Amino acid sequence: MIKDSTDKVRLNIAHDLKYFIKANNYATSANINPKIMDSFIKNIHETRNICAHNNRLIAFKCHSSSKYFSLIHDKYDLIDRDSRKSVYSTFASLECFLSETEFKMLNNTFRKRFRWLDRHLVMIDANQIGGLIGFPIDWFKKPKLVQG
User: Fold this and answer.
1) Can you give the three-state secondary structure of 1-23, one letter per residue?
2) How far is the first Cα of the chain from the last one, in angstroms, to the nearest whole number?
3) Residues 6-44: tens digit of each pLDDT
4) Global pTM?
């Protein structure tokens, strides 16, 4: 629906999103534009469809790289020249669309699942699986985010 909206509507949505991002613990103003927003939504949609239709998430790449948004991508060590087609990049972009509490819950759930894999896998390391969906090495070993 957003994709097919007029430029003015998309600009208003991006403008409202800017305040949502700022409310989610960012001290700076977030100048997200409709093209960045659209690229995030497109990759979130593709990743959601892979999961919803029981397709293989391992080694999945979105069709196009999301636009670089330093406020989010720098925080997750995704630099401008990197491809942002991975599940990890999509995970990072979700911080723009979820409340602070919801994102922390998602983050901690991913960490918990990776830690479970790390304890139970014998033939393959959890980092190898994480790497196949774009997560950095030992990402799951960082401390969990405190949920308020």
Assistant:
1) CCCCCCHHHHHHHHHHHHHHHHH
2) 33
3) 889 988 888 888 777 877 656 566 678 899 999 999 999
4) 0.89
Q: Where are the domains of the chain?
A: 7-141
Contacts for 44 with CB less than 8 Å, ≥ 6 apart: 90, 93, 94, 97
For 61, the token pair is 């790449």
Distance set, CA 55 to CA 15, 23, 33, 89 (Å): 34, 35, 31, 19
Summarised one tens digit per residue, pLDDT across range 81-96 is 888 999 999 999 998 8
CA 108 to chain centre: 13
Q: Are 134 and 114 in contact (CB under 8 A)?
A: no
